[in-house]
Structures are given as C-alpha cells and as structure tokens.
Amino acid sequence: MSWNRKPSFVAQPADTPASQIVMRLLVEGEGLAPTPIGTAFWITGHLAATAKHNIEYIIHKFGQPRGRSLIDGSPAIIDYSMRLYQILPGPEYAIWDVDNLTTSTESDIALMHLKLNGYSGPTQPRGGFGLNVCLLPPRHGSKIAALGYHSSRAATKPNPDGGHDINLDDVTQATAGIVTKIFPNGRDRGMYPFPCFQMNARFDSGMSGGPIFDERGRVVGIISGSMPEDGELPAVSYGATLGPIMNIPLSGKASGYPWARTAFPASDRVERGIIKVADLQAYREKQSRSARRAESLQG
Asked: pLDDT in tens for each of the 299 residues of the chain?
C-alpha cells in the first residue's frame, strides 16, 4: 500500500474486497428495528474485533443481555442480538452472530467470537480472514489508512417467503493520513486514557471499531474517535494501539480449545500462532525493558 501524505477521505464501492474483512456491526431483536452501531473486523478464524465503546453503547441503550437493566435503571430489551454483516464476492452476504465477547479493561478494544447466522450465496462461508497485527504503535510521521461505515440506515420489509429482508444503506469509507502523536500511556484521564496514537485522518460516526492499517497492510490500531475538521484546521483522530489485546481473556471456545468454559489470555493464542503478530519480538523486547526499568526504580 502507499498513500500521499495529504489526508484523504474517499468513498468505496459497497462490495469492495475489503468488505470481506471489515464488517458492519448491528443490533437486532424482537420488535426492534435493525440498528447500525459501528464497524468491526476479522482478527482470525471466528474472532473479530471492534471498539469497546461500541459495546458499551449497545448495553447502555438496549440493556445487558440476559435481562439485566440499563445503567440508568430503565427497562432492558432482553431479546436482542449483536450481528456482523459481511459482503462477499458476487456480491453475496453473510450474517454472523456475536456468540460471546470480552472487553479490555485497559483499552477501547473488544474481541468477539462469531457464529454463522445465515448467508445468501450457494456456498456456506467460512471464517479465517486472518490479518497481521502489530502490538506496538505505528511510528510518528508514518502513513496510515483505515476503513469503516458511516451514514448507516437500516429497514426491514416483508418478503414472499413470509419472512423479512433487511435493507442496509451506508457509505463504505476509506480514509488516510499520518500519525502525528503517540500516547503510550494514554492521552488523558477522560476520553483517551488508554495507549493510543493521534492522526490527521478523518473518521465519521459509525466508523468506530474499524481497522487502521500501516503501509504494509498490517493492522496497527482500532478507530476510537475523531474531532471533525474546523475551518482550515485538519481533523484530529485517535486509534487504540493493540498491545492491550494480549491481556484480554478469551473463552476456551474462542481460543480454539475444546473446553468452552475455560478462559485463556489472548497472548496464548498469539504464542500458538493463531493470532498473527508481525512485531511480536519487538513487543517482547519493549516489555522486557519496561519490566527492568520498573525493577530498578523499586530497588
């Protein structure tokens, strides 16, 4: 990949090949109109990622799954599903249920284990759109690109079979820019208290949770937030770095083990090569240096 250093914001065809990997996150339920929430993307196998604040928004608006009440005490909609919509060549589509999920306690990252709900094509789709990820932030001044969906609208209509079809309308958006600042320990205590980096790329509402790529096509972050352009001032946006993903516990099922109730940190899946990490050695060396510094300060 290569991009100019000048920020760009260019709409893509709905069936761009990247839509096999970058998917739409929706909420659906009995008596509930399909509600677009944000963007998500494959990590590996049946494991996908999105921004944690997308999940927090769902829980705040629709309630905790299994009947818990909303944060503000309002009645919860207990029968809803989180689903990812994937566009395949053809174009065909596949719908994936979020079977279970875990959010990071350190960052704006959520990992989701997916289960196939339905598909339109003649062949059942499979997971496995694995990507190379980087745990360390991209370099200051380096070029990045990202993909997400905004201006989303969804509606249902009856079909001849007695069921309902979902009409989903949105903008498939590619954006690019450069990294302008790195915050290894978070920018502030409020909006971005987690390891992140700042960019001059534009992200519109709905793109949160989408992947941020470096020039080599590796995922270096997750779209976390943005402040729009203001006159001649460029957009200011933020991406969560992926180092904290190592400490997210995954159920055995999500980690590839037969014991579905057993939890393992995602680092186990990295060590086994299931999650492909491009900078694992550099990440280990940095963690080792940090540990030695901490020990010297304690001594």
From this structure: 444 567 889 999 988 999 999 999 999 987 788 899 999 999 998 899 999 999 999 998 888 765 444 344 444 555 789 999 999 988 999 999 998 889 999 999 999 999 999 999 899 987 767 789 999 999 999 999 999 999 988 876 666 665 556 678 899 999 999 999 999 999 999 999 999 999 999 999 999 999 999 999 999 999 999 987 776 777 899 999 999 999 999 875 544 444 455 778 999 999 989 899 999 999 999 999 988 888 887 76
CA pair distance 196, 295, nearest whole angstrom:
25
Rounded to 5 degrees, φ, ψ at 141 are 85, -5
Taking alpha carbons only, the member of 107, 108, 100, 104 closest to residue 46 is: 100
Classify residue 253 by burial, with Cβ atoms within 10 Å: 0-12, 13-18, 19+. Answer: middle
Side-chain half-sphere CA neighbours of 24 within 13 A: 30
112's enclosing H/E stretch is: strand 110-119
* C-beta neighbour count of 290 within 10 angstroms: 11
Strand partners, 182: 197
Angle formed at CA 26 by CA 194 and CA 159, multiple of 5 degrees: 175
d(CA 126, CA 115): 10
- Among candidate residues 212, 215, 25, 19, the one with its CA nearest the CA of residue 112: 25
**C-beta pairs of 97-105 under 8 Å, 24+ apart in sequence:** 99/46, 99/253, 100/251, 100/253, 100/254, 101/55, 102/248, 102/249, 102/250, 102/251, 102/254, 103/52, 103/55, 103/56, 103/248, 104/52, 104/194, 104/244, 104/245, 104/247, 104/248, 105/247
In this prediction the pTM is 0.89
DSSP3 helix / strand / coil % (the chain, rounded to 5): 15, 45, 40
